[in-house]
Amino acid sequence: MKTITLREGKDRSLRKRHPWVFPGSIASGKADPGETVRVNAHDGSFLAWAAYSPASQIRVRAWSFTETERIDAAFFERRIREAVAIRARLPIASDGMRLIHGEADGLPGLIVDRYGDTLSAQFLSAGIERWKAVIADQLLKVTGLTRLYERSDANARELEGLPQVAGWLRGDGPTEITIREHDWQLTVDVAEGHKTGFYLDQRDSRKLFADSVRHFGCRRVLNCYSYTGGFSVAALAGGAEHVTSVDSSGPALARATRHVALNGFDAARHEALDADVNATLREFLRQGRRFDAIVLDPPKFAPTAAHAERAARAYKDINRLGFMLLEPGGLLFTYSCSGGISADLFHKIVAGAGLDAPADGLIYARTGAAPDHPMTVTFPEGEYLKGLVVLKR
User: Fold this and answer.
1) Gap between the Cα atoms of 75 and 193, Å rounded
2) What is the separation, in whole angstroms, between the first and last Cα of the chain?
3) Rounded to two decimals, what is the model's pTM?
């Protein structure tokens, strides 16, 4: 077993069970990509078993902080069983759910979502890649399923020195699946959809949106960066008279239109616009259009803290326009999925957008990812999705 020794004073994060080690913390030692290593403090005391990644700025990702634990097939089966058991205890109103959420489940770099009878997985780190075949077998063993689609086509693979890969890892068949979410039906294509196929992390926010549209009597709704229309279906379920979905992906909008029909809503109540969101918001202002509820759920503007300043300007601009398009008493559901934007910074950005609009509002709710996308107390970086629901004065 190869050993990585940390510099003096660089062991504090691992002692607090934070799973990452960066190159500047390492005094000596190296290994092959994904190889399991022993991580020692400067004085030689044990800190963790971990996966080594020579190409990544996260040079070491911890598997276990227990010296007597072995990293083998049984280890991965235990971790997978624990993760699946936790989900079984959660109140998840869907047959689409996240089963493995990387570091939060003790499996850094592994994302696994379940869509009905199909698993969709991303193997995003060198350590997870090295154990891919074992993990695939254990996933099917633990869940009792037979189909596993790989979506390791994310840019994060390149940071690990790994090629992008996608396709059936176990089983085969159609890649489109219909899932139930609350009282609605939604379709997912694990081969073509974003991430593993769909944004399961917004499940609870979509339900809150439906309930809020109903409670506040929102008639005209605007869903920006709508993707396949999850929030649009929620708005219609909440009784909205008309919903406008805006996205720059024609195929996503076509699926959104199908979702409206699939859930039995009148097509005349839904408008799909294949357009740039920023330009559309400005055009709506020029036309004098106003809305009772607006969703702003943009893609990741700041993948790291280094991009935060530029991203903050982009978030502020769309939120300023959103405030201006809202009727008094209207609801703004606004989100950031950027890891480089903290919840506190996002609140400040939205507050600044309100000042520039100018508009004021009450924080009706704070939202985050659904509980099957957990954040642990030792890994705050797991809090990537932040949301504010603002009731405009």
Assistant:
1) 31
2) 63
3) 0.94
Handedness of CA 351, 353, 358, 364 (dihedral sign): negative
d(CA 186, CA 207): 14
Which tokens belong to 179? 């899932």
Distance CA 127, CA 192 (A): 26
Q: Pseudo-torsion of CA 262, 263, 268, 274, nearest 10°? A: -60
| Nearest-angstrom CA–CA distance, 15 and 18 | 7
> Rounded to whole angstroms, how far apart are CA atoms 139 and 149?
12
H or E segment and range at residue 137: helix 132-143
DSSP of 174-242, one letter per residue?
Answer: --EEEEEETTEEEEEETTTSSTTSS-GGGHHHHHHHHHHHHHHT--EEEEES-TTTHHHHHHHHTT-SE
Q: Is 218 a catalytic residue?
A: no
pLDDT tens track for 124-173 = 999 999 999 999 999 999 999 999 999 999 999 999 999 999 999 999 99
> Where do we find the tokens 């985050």?
368
Out of 47, 210, 337, 370, which one is annotated catalytic? 337
